[in-house]
Amino acid sequence: MDYSGRFRPVRPLLPQDAANHPVEPHPFFNESRYLHLIDGRQRIGGWFRIGQRANQGFSEMTVCLYLPDGRLGFVFAKPDDVSVGRIEAAGLSIEVLEPMVRTRLRYDGPIFVLPDGTALERPREAFVPEASRPARIDLQLHAVAPAHGGELLDDAGQPYDEGEGRYFARAHYDQSLRGEGTIEVGGQHWLIAGHGLADHSWGPRIWQAIPWYRWYPCTFGDDLSICLMVVKQADGALLQTGFLNEGGRLHHVHSIRVNSRYTDDERRYPTGFILSFEDDRGRRYDVEGETIASAPCRHGRKLDDGRTDKSRIMECMTRYRMDGREGWGMAEYMDHQDAADGGAFEGIRAGY
């Protein structure tokens, strides 16, 4: 995993990378898209994901809404088909209107309205018919900065083989955006306008391939955004990477230092963080984040011996402060859970 191209050769992004890519033969090939948009003024936002696993014969769809009164709207589906020519799954669709410039996102279907994110810890109690409401979402999204990323290559100029069991995000880009549109849930209606991020990756993906990562995307406005990532890679190396967007110009980020805060109970939910980073000009920035609402998501993979290998992905709507400005974004905490140590969260155990 190398989002900057500084450590391996990289194929620069092309306009066609906004579309689906040819399906590769690897059984875990995954075309994955994630988008979030947050209206900080109204304290409403959401993230949306489509993962298309053509060789495994299924898609993954998630819609997660953080509602102004603290409730959480959540739906996950795993339809047993993949529309490789389109970006859609179970009522959620992403339409590329102009590659890496304009996108439309729509959802029309049910959503479970939960008291808050902790309800996801008890899915059998949460996802019951009484909690289901009809939802309609229609968002127009516009890039405010160039996309950052590319496709890793080997020394011969071919797509890089991360190694068996290490597959995660060989090809990847992030892009800051603004957006506006409508969200309807169970008869309630909101007009929203805010900022967010688009994340697109393709290649073989195994969620449990890495021990942990910390991801901090925030768009403060059309002129300023960050996307920072600290990753413990499968080979044991610690990767610190990302970008700072100032006025539409990207600056590579390195030397990220993170001090995270968690609840004191066994769940260890993130409550906020303080971090600092340097860009390629040698400028240092200090950032503070406060968790406003969170959703604990889980991903499991059955192993050949019958055990389930698990990871937890905490999706936290977060208020950021940097250089005197306030912004809204997400903070994503992915931890592989060590089965040999009672399900301990590996990133938290490592001090992140």
Structure in words:
The structure is a single chain. By secondary structure, the protein is mainly beta. The protein is 2% helix and 60% strand. The longest helix has 4 residues, at 123-126. The chain has one domain (26-349): AttH-like domain (AttH-like fold). The model has no long low-confidence stretch (mean pLDDT 92). The protein contains two helices and 21 strands. The chain starts with 9 loop residues before the first strand and ends with a helix.
Which key phrases capture this entry?
2 helices, AttH-like fold, globular, 8-stranded antiparallel beta barrel, single chain, 352 residues, 60% strand
Walk me through the topology.
Layout: E1 10-11, E2 29-39, E3 44-53, E4 58-66, E5 72-77, E6 88-89, E7 92-98, E8 102-114, H1 123-126, E9 132-143, E10 148-152, E11 171-185, E12 188-204, E13 212-221, E14 224-232, E15 238-246, E16 249-262, E17 270-279, E18 284-302, E19 308-322, E20 325-338, E21 344-345, H2 346-349
Antiparallel strand pairs: 1-10, 2-3, 2-12, 3-4, 4-5, 5-8, 6-7, 7-8, 8-9, 9-11, 10-11, 11-12, 13-14, 13-20, 14-15, 15-16, 16-17, 17-18, 18-19, 19-20, 20-21
CATH hierarchy: architecture: Beta Barrel
Please state the average pLDDT score: 92
Name the overall outline: globular
**N- to C-terminal separation?**
19 Å
Identify low-pLDDT runs. Answer: none
Structural class: mainly beta
CATH top level? Mainly Beta
